[in-house]
Write a structure and sequence with these properties.
This protein has helices at residues 38-50, 60-74, 89-100, 116-122, 144-151, 174-186, 215-220, 246-258, 268-278, 280-304, 330-341, 367-384, and strands at residues 25-26, 83-86, 106-111, 127-132, 134-136, 139-141, 156-162, 190-194, 221-225, 239-242, 309-310, 318-322, 343-344, 346-347, 358-362. With 385 residues, it is an alpha/beta fold. The chain folds into two domains: 25-38 and 280-384, Alpha-Beta Complex (Aspartate Aminotransferase, domain 1), CATH 3.90.1150; 52-278, 3-Layer(aba) Sandwich (Aspartate Aminotransferase, domain 2). The strands form four sheets. A seven-stranded mixed beta sheet has the order 2-10-9-8-7-3-4, sandwiched between helices. Helix 7 links the parallel strand 8 (190-194) and strand 9 (221-225).
């Protein structure tokens, strides 16, 4: 029903992703090359037609849209009062770091992980503690012995968790999440759970909300959610934090308002409501399309580049590759790939030291662009071997 094969020319539109040289192909930043759901576009057109863009209230319909979506899609009852509007997941994380920790305290991240987590920690004068995930047989798991050892440091007061995990595309199971919660509770560590990719799971696959696992997880956590990744709305700046614990919620509410990131622009509320009330069918077709793109990539790699290892994933449109057969330095490898073919990928080093021999590819684009990217990758790696 929806045409995800359509090529949308985004050059000369001030697109961060497409601000590149002529002939280059960007498959790096997590930004899709598809037009968003028609219901969202219709809302935006109506809003523009009003011609007045003043300050906005947050209606009950906004809370209800989130509540109904998480109830029907993710089997989680969300209390109305537990939701707080925020302009984005990253602003929410940075505000939470400032409010829940003190300067020079330590924050754990499970690496390789979304690189902006590091910014939210370092830029606020806190220290990063990397807890590398165990990588074996092409998959990742938490090294709980190392994790608990690092949690036991009294200077560690916060964990920034990624669920589903970016960049490895892993959906954490209920048992794993429960263990994370138990250990954080034991060592008095709070949890920020970034769940922005939760609706981008493979068809027939569901993620587990961190707050749904146990009362312990529920009461120790700040969950960051948004329609922006799954509906390609990053530029609209609309998100929410879910904080069931009323004491913790008050602290987060104060943090977001102190940082002035709790007031919506003229489009943020209506776009989210349209996405969560009318965008389900579009999203399901998108997930099918992305899954077929993944399968296309997997088959191509197995046939043309068997030494390159594609890490199996269940979520996100970001693919994670082990390129150690070609180079242990993905920074230099990605530079060469771009220089030789124009293909722009994300080097794995920026996601933590354990990602140095990996790179990330964004396949949220029409299939012809995926094929173009794969062919460029093949040429570059063949020249490099």
């Amino acid at each position: 029903m929806y045409n995800f094969d359509e090529i949308n020319d985004r050059r000369n539109t001030n697109s961060y992703k497409w601000n590149i040289k002529e002939g280059e192909l960007p498959m790096w930043v997590a930004d899709m090359d598809f037009r968003t759901a028609p219901a969202i576009i219709e809302f935006l057109e109506r809003k523009v037609g009003e011609g007045i863009f003043g300050y906005q209230d947050i209606p009950d319909a906004w809370n209800e849209a989130y509540q109904n979506w998480w109830k029907t899609r993710h089997h989680l009852d969300v209390e109305r009062d537990s939701l707080i509007f925020c302009t984005g997941v990253v602003p929410a994380i940075s505000s939470a770091v400032r409010k829940l920790t003190t300067p020079a305290e330590k924050v754990i991240v499970l690496t390789p992980v979304y690189n902006i987590f590091f910014n939210s920690i370092y830029n606020n004068g806190r220290n990063v503690v990397e807890c590398p995930l165990k990588y074996a047989n092409g998959s990742y798991d938490i090294d709980f012995e190392d994790f608990e050892n690092k949690l036991s440091d009294p200077q560690v007061t916060l964990l920034i968790f990624c669920n589903p995990h970016n960049p490895v595309g892993k959906i954490w199971d209920r048992k794993t999440l429960a263990r994370v919660g138990e250990l954080c509770d034991k060592h008095h560590v709070l949890v920020i759970s970034d769940e922005i990719h939760c609706d981008l799971t493979d068809p027939g696959t569901e993620y587990v909300p961190y707050a749904s696992v146990s009362e312990t997880c529920r009461m120790q956590s700040v969950t960051c959610i948004a329609p922006t990744k799954c509906f390609n709305l990053a530029g609209i700046q609309t998100a929410a934090v879910m904080v069931p614990n009323p004491v913790l919620r008050h602290r987060i509410w104060r943090a977001l308002n102190t940082d002035e990131v709790a007031e919506p622009n003229a489009f943020a509320i209506g776009a989210a409501i349209a996405a969560f009330t009318k965008g389900g069918e579009w999203l399901d077709e998108l997930r099918e399309y992305l899954y077929r793109n993944k399968e296309l990539v997997r088959e191509f790699i197995e046939r043309e580049l068997p030494e390159l290892k594609l890490i199996s994933s269940q979520a996100t449109y970001l693919l994670w590759f082990d390129c150690s057969a070609y180079s242990y330095d993905s920074v230099e490898l990605c530079r060469q790939i771009r220089e030789k073919t124009g293909l722009y990928l994300s080097n794995g080093a920026q996601y933590g030291q354990s990602g140095r021999s990996f790179f990330r590819m964004n396949i949220a684009c029409p299939r012809t662009m995926v094929l173009d990217g794969l062919e460029r990758l093949r040429r570059a790696l063949m020249m490099n071997s």
